[in-house]
Design brief:
single chain, alpha/beta, 8 strands, 50% helix, 10% strand
Length: 357
């Protein structure tokens, strides 16, 4: 009797159970640690690449027309006057920066000089550097692969000869280093050599390539590539397209068809429309981008061949007029010469050493 009033002995706490292992025998903690290590390695690699890229840009862009034009300009004009501003204006326009962008920069410098904001030529030089950086910083947005999109579809477009197929091969190598699985779709069916070239890049990087015969429907190739990538659980699909002049309306309309066909399998595809632009084409690049953007809604740019006869200034003109992200720039033929666009490194490579006070 009254046993129910007696204090019952407390139960010993149950020992904590270890976290259930995830598939493959790894616990959630193991996977979290592995993810953290991967992110740290990726960040360290990007930082090392940024440093290497800045050195590469100095070596390559230092020979551009813009760099050469500005090289001795401040030494020849040690006084703050209109002659110095006129020479800066001539150098920028000659280097394909374009009249609107150049006028905007020079007028701002002229106003500040009249307001006596500059104590000397080095102060004006710093202002020029800051104005050029302000034009490029908003468009310096690296391409991020959305892990929720599987596969993340990149459609590459551009006119003939800009280096699209080579850029695709370099992108495939970059994404592999980031741990992504890849597949390529050889949609440039008008040029047999382009299909073979893409297959060679695929073999080099051990990446599967979906291809059909010459003159096959490019939209069909893209569709097959997306189907195959989905069935194999591929992370990234890069689809090539035929190079075309921006004045060829029939071929431009075909790009719209490719986009519509991809959307039948994935309404968000393509997730990135990457336009490759030859840095040597100057102001004509603006006309090309206008037409391609109207046809297929470009979301990012790659500016190639900056190691050749490129004048360098067209990058500023593209940034000012369109404001589209510049994802990468091409500084050479090697895979590592495709660099993430770094505005500070780019501007500093184009400008001469700061003048002495």
């Amino acid at each position: 009797m009254f046993d129910f009033l007696k204090k019952k002995p407390e139960k010993a706490p149950e020992p904590a159970r270890p976290a259930a292992p995830a598939r493959g025998g790894f616990s959630p903690d193991d996977l979290a640690r592995a993810f953290t290590v991967h992110q740290e390695e990726k960040a360290a690699r990007l930082e090392a690449e940024r440093a290497e890229g800045r050195e590469a840009m100095k070596g390559v862009l230092g020979g551009s027309l813009l760099a050469r034009s500005l090289g001795g300009l401040f030494q020849r004009n040690p006084q703050l006057d209109e002659d110095l501003l006129d020479e800066i204006e001539t150098a920028l326009i000659t280097a394909d920066m374009g009249v609107p962008a150049t006028t905007e920069v020079v007028n701002r410098l002229r106003k500040r000089m009249k307001d006596r904001d500059f104590a000397d030529v080095p102060a004006l030089f710093r202002a020029l550097r800051n104005d050029l950086l302000a034009m490029l910083r908003p468009v310096a947005k690296p391409l991020e692969i959305d892990p929720a999109a599987k596969p993340f579809v990149i459609l590459t477009v551009g006119v003939n000869g800009v280096g699209k197929t080579t850029t695709i091969g370099k992108l495939a190598r970059r994404f592999q280093l980031d741990g992504h699985s890849l597949m390529l779709a050889a949609g440039d069916t008008f040029r047999a050599a382009a299909v073979e070239q893409l297959k060679i890049w695929g073999e080099r990087n051990d990446v599967p390539v979906v291809a059909q015969g010459q003159d096959a429907d490019p939209a069909s190739v893209a569709f097959d590539g997306l189907q195959a990538a989905k069935s194999r659980g591929i992370d990234v699909l890069i689809a090539d397209t035929a190079g075309r002049l921006h004045t060829q309306q029939g071929l431009m309309a075909e790009l719209g068809k490719i986009r519509r066909v991809l959307a039948k399998l994935d309404e968000r595809a393509p997730h990135e429309v990457l336009m490759v632009i030859d840095g040597t084409t100057g102001q004509n690049a603006l006309n090309q981008l206008r037409q391609f953007h109207a046809a297929v809604k470009v979301t990012g740019l790659v500016v190639t061949k900056l190691d050749g006869t490129a004048k360098g200034g067209v990058v500023f003109a593209l940034a000012r007029e369109f404001g589209l992200p510049i994802r990468f720039i091409g500084l050479g033929e090697k895979p590592e010469d495709l660099r993430i666009f770094d505005p500070e490194g780019f501007v500093d490579a184009l400008l001469p050493a700061p003048p002495a006070a």
